[in-house]
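Fill in residues.
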């Protein structure tokens, strides 16, 4: 079946490769290249680089709704379009182009976590499981009828990076199965239950700031959710440090939130609003992340030191 694949970041690559192996991908549509690094050189998006390796043409429209892109898509003549983490909203004239419609990959068990940060939200909220949904595309964000879903547990040490990788690998065969069902006319879509809808907002850099007044379990979840970006941040002595790995301890220390309560060989403990946070991998300003034991050999940290709160 002839398709056009819409997607941009790393998470889409297993799906793009699987679709290209099973169907005819006429083109890949992704966001424009962005400048990165000190030299601010334009770097191809992950989807663009993957498409080039697969020999698939790439389109990177600056505008979607001026008529030109719609014309291009009609001329490309996809039977079905697929979208996963493209990063831009599609309006009805574009949705109307492919005869067999659209399939969207969403990394949550819809109708839970409609929106742009379902992976981070599941970890932040301490969910025991999540999954992947293959769904129809409608104008309302993530509101289309569901074709297929698959569930996976969220492991205690999962980060947004590890969970996202697992979900992307799960999504690849599920998406191909969904496309096959659309192609042979056996696809059955189920409406989402409006009473169970939850939404999530974009996870931004400021959301990585540690609030020591929160319970330790919430902070530990934040540390996992903020990996690999923006990494959980905290302030000590006016400097910004980053917490890369931590564990929640139930025992209260009787100290004000943000206070270092103990410094041990391979960890230090910080009082929180409920319980303590054991910090295991830490990053000083301008330095690489390192196990706390290595950090402490180069920098003193004492019980009674206090991270900024609020």
């Amino acid at each position: 079946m002839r398709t056009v694949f819409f997607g941009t970041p790393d998470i889409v690559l297993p799906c793009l490769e699987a679709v290209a192996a099973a169907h005819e991908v006429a083109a890949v549509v992704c966001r424009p290249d962005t400048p990165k690094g000190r030299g601010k050189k334009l770097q191809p998006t992950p989807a663009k680089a993957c498409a080039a390796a697969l020999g698939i043409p790439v389109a990177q429209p600056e505008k979607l709704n001026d008529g030109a892109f719609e014309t291009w898509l009609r001329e490309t003549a996809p039977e079905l379009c697929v979208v996963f983490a493209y990063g831009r909203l599609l309006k009805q004239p574009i949705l109307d182009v492919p005869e067999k419609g659209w399939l969207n990959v969403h990394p949550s068990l819809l109708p839970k976590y409609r929106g742009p940060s379902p992976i981070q939200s599941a970890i932040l909220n301490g969910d025991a499981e999540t999954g992947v949904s293959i769904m129809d595309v409608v104008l309302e964000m993530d509101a289309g009828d569901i074709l297929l879903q698959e569930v996976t547990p969220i492991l205690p040490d999962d980060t947004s990076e590890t969970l996202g990788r697992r979900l992307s690998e799960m999504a690849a065969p599920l998406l191909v199965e969904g496309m096959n069902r659309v192609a042979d006319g056996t696809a059955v879509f189920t409406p989402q239950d409006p009473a169970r809808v939850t939404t999530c907002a974009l996870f931004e850099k400021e959301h990585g700031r540690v609030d020591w007044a929160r319970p330790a379990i919430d902070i530990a979840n934040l540390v996992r959710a903020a990996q690999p970006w923006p990494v959980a941040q905290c302030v000590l002595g006016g400097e910004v440090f980053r917490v890369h790995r931590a564990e929640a301890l139930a025992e209260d220390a009787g100290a004000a939130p943000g206070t270092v309560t103990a410094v041990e060989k391979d960890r230090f403990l910080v009082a929180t609003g409920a319980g303590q946070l054991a910090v295991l991998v830490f990053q000083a300003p301008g330095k690489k992340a390192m196990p706390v034991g290595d950090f402490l050999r180069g920098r003193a940290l004492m019980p009674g030191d206090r991270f900024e709160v609020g």
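Helices lie at 13-22, 46-54, 68-76, 92-95, 118-124, 160-184, 216-225, 292-298.
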